[in-house]
From TrEMBL:
Source domain of life: Eukaryota
Cellular localization per UniProt: Cell projection, Cilium; Cytoplasm, Cytoskeleton
Keyword Signal among record annotations: no
Organism: Durusdinium trenchii
Biased composition (Gly residues): 254-276
Keyword field: Cell projection, Coiled coil, Cytoplasm, Cytoskeleton, Repeat, WD repeat
Region (Disordered): 250-276
Name this protein carries in UniProt: Cilia- and flagella-associated protein 44
Main location: other
Coiled-coil parts of chain: 44-71, 192-241
DNA-binding listed as a keyword: no
Length: 276
């Protein structure tokens, strides 16, 4: 009571002391709780690290287990089988001693026949197209020849018309024409001679022009011949490919040997180019 301020009764002072004591006890509890909370936070972080490590180990073990199961599945179905095939059906390059068939695949006969049929159809379509091109170019050449022939006939008629128009009739010729039979014959003979001379000159000029045109046509015909030769060569190559495909198909037919039908693998998958 010696510390009690003046004007404060004893009950209020005691109540204040009790409240102060409770405050101190509460602060001590808070301090203790903070310490416990810090310890729990550290322990929680430690547990979280252990949980992350355990989760990582679990994922690794699950991945290894899954890979092991896949390996066991492959080993269960990936077995070695002995096949007896007809000659001509094995297209793996043969080694000198032992041939490695580890990466070889078995293709169903129907797949090969369907591909060969498709190749044959494409070859026939190509040959048909080349035949159409050949016939079309042949018709174009024929039309060009007919056009040139008509042009030459037109030129010949024009030259004949010029010969008639350019023939000069003199008084002597008129008198000869009006004379008797001898004069008429002589006039006709002179007329024919002059006409022959004129026609000879015109023919010589026309011959030179025709020679030049003939050289051009011969060059064009040579080019057409070379082009037709290339087309015939392509046609023979395509026909040879078709014959080879038919020969291979017959060799792979069911009548060629006693081996059983090859086992289907991969559901008739993709056939690489050049696989037959």
């Amino acid at each position: 009571m010696e510390d009690c301020p003046e004007g404060v009764d004893e009950d209020s002072f005691n109540r204040m002391r009790e409240l102060r004591s409770e405050k101190l006890r509460a602060e001590a509890e808070v301090t203790k709780g903070a310490t416990v909370l810090a310890e729990m936070g550290g322990f929680l972080a430690h547990l979280e690290r252990e949980s992350a490590e355990a989760k990582s180990d679990r994922d690794r073990l699950e991945r290894e287990l899954r890979e092991h199961k896949e390996l066991m599945t492959r080993e269960l179905y990936d077995i070695e089988i002995l096949f007896k095939l007809k000659q001509g059906q094995v297209e793996v390059p043969q080694a000198a001693v032992v041939t490695d068939y580890s990466d070889a695949i078995v293709i169903d006969q129907e797949v090969v026949e369907s591909r060969n049929s498709r190749i044959t159809d494409l070859g026939k379509d190509k040959v048909h197209i080349l035949t159409k091109i050949k016939e079309f170019r042949k018709s174009l050449s024929l039309l060009d020849w007919e056009h040139e022939m008509l042009a030459l006939q037109t030129t010949d008629l024009e030259e004949r018309t010029k010969d008639v128009h350019m023939l000069r009739v003199t008084k002597d010729l008129q008198s000869l024409l009006k004379g008797g039979e001898e004069g008429r014959n002589k006039a006709e003979s002179d007329l024919l001679e002059r006409k022959i001379e004129h026609v000879s000159e015109a023919t010589e000029k026309k011959e030179q022009a025709l020679k030049k045109q003939h050289a051009m046509l011969a060059h064009a015909a040579k080019l057409r011949k070379n082009e037709n030769g290339m087309l015939e060569k392509k046609l023979r190559e395509l026909q040879q490919n078709v014959i080879q495909r038919e020969h291979i198909r017959r060799l792979r037919g069911p009548a060629g040997g006693g081996g059983g039908a090859p086992q289907k693998t991969g559901g008739g998958g993709r056939v690489e180019a050049g696989s037959g």
